[in-house]
Sequence to fold (422 residues):
Amino acid sequence: MTPPTYDIVIIGAGAAGMMAAGEAASLGAKVLLLEKMERPGRKLLITGKGRCNITNTAEFKDFIKHFQPNENYIKHVFGQFFNTELISFFNDLGVATDEERGGRIFPTSDSSHDVVDALVIWLRKNKVDLWGRAAAEKFIIKDGRLNAVKLFDGRLVYGKSFILATGGTSYPATGSTGDGYKMVKPLGHNITEIYPALVPFLTEGDTAKLLEGLSLKNINARILQDNKVLFEEFGEMLFTAKGVSGPVILSLSRNVVPLLHQDQEMTLSIDLKPAVDDNTLENRVRKELDENGKMYFHNLLKFYLPQKLIDVCCKLVNIDPNKPCSQISAVERKRFRFWLKNFNLKITGHGGFKEAIITKGGISVTEVDFKTMQSKKISNLFIAGEVLDIDAETGGYNLQAAFSTGIVAGRWVVAYLKNNVE
Ligand SMILES: Cc1cc2nc3c(=O)[nH]c(=O)nc-3n(C[C@H](O)[C@H](O)[C@H](O)COP(=O)(O)OP(=O)(O)OC[C@H]3O[C@@H](n4cnc5c(N)ncnc54)[C@H](O)[C@@H]3O)c2cc1C
Fold:
């Protein structure tokens, strides 16, 4: 018996693949969605610490800035399906949403399960065939077009068109292990260098270990190279057993990791008092030392620093914590004041793909038409989601990109089939 030929075979049931499948099926196509893991949306379930930050309410021009340097590609996709459409889409599926700090949108239930469940019900309603434990290995080409996809277990699945939505290679335990890159290379697609992005940094010495668990709010984190500021971010950070993490560090990592791979030396410089300039801080420190002459230095530090940072500060600025303030010399005072604005830690490395929120790099954006998500190499192949060289900072931007590229691919593959196959 000849196996059925689907209109569209979609590889990968993550955010992008599920959106593409539901959209194409709702437009009347016969769709098969292949998923390597037993169930769809494994990565979606762990997003936003299990709460799933689906998008952000930022205005279009600010939103696309988060995708630098490839914002001029993704903007064509967001022009067709953006944050308001995504929020309405989930609300219509019964997932109520709330806006939080920084425009982040979460399900009101705070549960990523509700997002995945709603998508699966939508797929069922639109009669998408979903196969779990169906890992695609390679495409079969016939007459310059894709004819089938071969699964690792030997099965062949035939289709008139295909959407690749296998994700990147971060958090591989969720199923995203970079298979898509291997599948498109033989078709002539180029993969730009891939790096783990939105990852913690490793730092030199035992300072981070001593501060493990300490979170610093409202700090300015700068990346220095030869005393030149390369990048900076304001916000919150966290010390880990081996280095630093938290929102500002993850954001900085998008730019810093590729430079670390070129063996460039970089230092993280934390400004603990970004709201005050050097002079104002100098005057404040001098005044407080004068006014509290009998107080031990470590007690005065309580006015400036969280408890956990006090011993580390004394060690780094080389001042005896039990010295009365009246005995702190001008040199020591200046050293302390300088350190408050320049708490420096040498970056020695970064977290790997296992803990990266996203993969930087992927299928070259120049080889895909971002108005349709059609491959420029193979006409009946469309590509969506993180497998592409598209990535952004945290805040809901990456999921919006996956959902939007999925919808656009699903929509345009149906138009392609109408014009070229029927
Ligand atoms: C811990 C964590 C938290 C995150 N939180 C957020 C957040 O709150 N907001 C946000 O915007 N972004 C977040 N992200 C990023 C976001 O999850 C991804 O950008 C998004 O999931 C990418 O969607 P995708 O569909 O392209 O890929 P994925 O979600 O990775 O889906 C790809 C799917 O393809 C399947 N697959 C892979 N290879 C094959 C194969 N050979 N055959 C068949 N199937 C295959 C995989 O099993 C997987 O199910 C987070 C990421 C992580 C790791």
